């Protein structure tokens, strides 16, 4: 916008996102208000999504680490340390309850992230093939972030499944 103003001496009131508004943004006051509001909303959306994903990553890692700890405790259990068995059972019950709570809390958000991410990938692919070259960097950046989000959720979900399977195998040896 600034480059265009200096080269052509013409002001273009561009917004950070394509939005439909019931008023014109071809004046300074509505443009500034709309620009600040839409930028702030974009930042809040990114922060909310990153926080939700971060919480999911931390909690699944916590459950996986606890399954590892309990597996090691069971592996090192011998006849002289049977008195620790009650503590191991309590930790096992706690981790199972935490896993159930995690499943209850994150089932719908993860499903909606996958479904919305799939729609975003389709829309971004369409924009890449039919859109202008000016949209290309933004579309690639957004596509990368959506793919990374889906990949990370899949990896952490798979890690949890793998740790539970390892735990069950060690439990029944």
TrEMBL record:
Cellular component GO terms held in the UniProt record: plasma membrane
Main location: membrane
Compartments where found: Membrane
GO annotation, biological process: signal transduction
GO molecular function, one term: odorant binding
Membrane topology: Multi-pass membrane protein
Ranges annotated as spanning the membrane: 37-59, 104-129, 135-156
Taxonomy, superkingdom: Eukaryota
Keywords: Membrane, Olfaction, Receptor, Sensory transduction, Transducer, Transmembrane, Transmembrane helix
Listed name of the protein: Odorant receptor 42
């Amino acid at each position: 916008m600034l480059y265009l103003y200096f080269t052509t001496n013409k002001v273009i009131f561009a917004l950070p996102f394509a939005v439909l508004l019931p008023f014109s943004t071809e004046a300074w006051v509505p443009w500034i208000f709309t620009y600040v509001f839409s930028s702030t909303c974009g930042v809040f959306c990114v922060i909310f999504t990153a926080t939700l994903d971060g919480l999911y990553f931390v909690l699944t890692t916590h459950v996986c680490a606890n399954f590892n700890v309990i597996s090691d405790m069971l592996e090192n259990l011998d006849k002289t340390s049977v008195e620790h068995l009650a503590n191991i059972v309590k930790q096992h019950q706690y981790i199972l309850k935490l896993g159930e709570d995690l499943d209850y809390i994150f089932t719908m958000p993860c499903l909606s992230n996958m479904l919305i991410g799939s729609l975003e990938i389709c829309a971004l692919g369409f924009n890449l093939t039919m859109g202008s070259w000016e949209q290309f960097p933004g579309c690639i950046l957004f596509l990368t972030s959506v793919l990374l989000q889906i990949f990370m959720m899949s990896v952490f979900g798979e890690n949890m499944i793998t740790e539970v399977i390892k735990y069950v195998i060690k439990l029944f040896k």
